[in-house]
């Protein structure tokens, strides 16, 4: 089992990342090899005019990886742009993919529709899934823990691996996507949680501010008054309970109380925040003890390890494609 996954350094990590990285940790402890990277080239697709944010967020991202439990003794932590083989494999894979195929990607259409304040009409943005395939297959990744919105990208990576293997030589595995038990947390406005949409809850938010964000979250629109019964499955807050409330007794209290209007939305949210704090507090404490210098050292060590693997993969690829010069 070779695990590969990464995240874009476009700002602070939000609770959606918290769930995905939690899945990374499951695989870290049973994988033969695991690679977790900072996808700074991917960040340029939407933040090319804000590179200072990308640079500072790269170190912050690695600090969060470490605070949440990614162990550099078990996993290779590195920065994408330090490994030039990703770019070479991206170029070679791009020869196997049509532009119309990329334009049909659900994430491409979704972001074009929802992000109006950035110019996304670039080749880099269109080719994002091809670079993502290169990120995974450079390390022969067969296991990819991702958010639900990235499942289609992993399937696309499988397509590229099959096409390369059929055309040239059987080199690449066909990776499988794995999502967290709660695959998608909604944002504060009920849409997908995304930094790009401005509706995310940041992991490192001060306790008082995070509590305020939770209390302001949208709930089931049927509960106009305290006495109106609701349906938890129509309420974004219930999705958070599924992620952070481990007690079955408390979950049943939420379900029954909501459906019968025995509890109000504020009561429900207070129990949720209590459980969120319990899971997030260790991460908050760990972050205080991990410096940017600590993160930088981990990155430099990880870059060397990743580069040696990437070089071997590209030697095989060049040989298969008769690019031996």
From TrEMBL:
UniProt-recorded name of the protein: Tryptophan--tRNA ligase
Top-tier EC class: ligase
Presence of keyword Ligase: yes
Annotated Gene Ontology cellular component terms: cytosol
Catalytic activities: tRNA(Trp) + L-tryptophan + ATP = L-tryptophyl-tRNA(Trp) + AMP + diphosphate + H(+)
A Gene Ontology biological process term: tryptophanyl-tRNA aminoacylation
Family, per entry: Belongs to the class-I aminoacyl-tRNA synthetase family.
Gene transcribed to yield this protein: trpS
The EC number(s) this enzyme carries: 6.1.1.2
